[in-house]
Amino acid sequence: MHVFVFDLETIPDVEAGRRLYDLEGLDDADVARAMFHQRQQETGHEFLRHYLHRIVAISAVLRSGDLFKVWSLGTEESSEAELIQRFFDGVAKYSPTLVSWNGGGFDLPVLHYRALLHGIDAARYWENGDEDRNFRFNNYLSRFHERHTDLMDVLSAYQYNAKAPLDQIATLLGFPGKLGQSGAHVWDQYLAGDVKGIRDYCETDVLNTYLIYLRFEQTRGHLTAAAYTQECQRVRDTLAADGQAHLRKFLDAWKA
Fold first, then answer.
1. pLDDT tens for each residue of 58-113
2. Regarding the domain delimited by 2-10+54-253, which CATH topology (the fold level of the hierarchy) does it fall under?
3. What whole-number distance in Å separates Cα of residue 112 and Cα of residue 57?
């Protein structure tokens, strides 16, 4: 079994904003400000529509065989198209179980629109049984299939009023949570040139998501208590050996 936990960080697609809202001549910060204002007027909040998000980081945990790995796809200089292609190349290579927190509500729709924009090859992801019968009754596209497990969706029993934030559930379970960071800061970080900081933050999000997934696997009988403890220790050992500051901070904050 290959498990691929993923998370995106995004910024406003200012080029789309210029095109859709006739904002030529404004710099990126002013275009984004206008996009946020437009959205505030429409809905009472500034969170942009899915197709107006540009992906600047995709981070992942891969658990496969004896391998446990946490990283961000591509490099700090990678284009959005390269990041997205690498994501779907991983799906094609491993046909993994995708795991996310609100991936069905945000990450995957954003990936759909941005892959469409860039003409990305994502054939394996879109497989629904026409070419591979194993995907007929368990594929990435159905909300109720496990090939993509959206933990926020599943744990809330698909009830909107029961959904919970990743940070609070992670903290409740004794995991580090977001350590004072937030996706709301990503645009400011990007304008400041701190793409590395964005990628580091995204990696801690996928670690929290993976640890919740391990607890979920124990709860539904797929891991024994001993196996759960062993898997958590594997994560601890990997982070300790890595030595990167943000992973060390995550490890130090891990209470249980």
1. 999 999 999 999 999 999 999 999 999 999 999 999 999 999 999 999 999 999 99
2. Nucleotidyltransferase; domain 5 (3.30.420)
3. 15
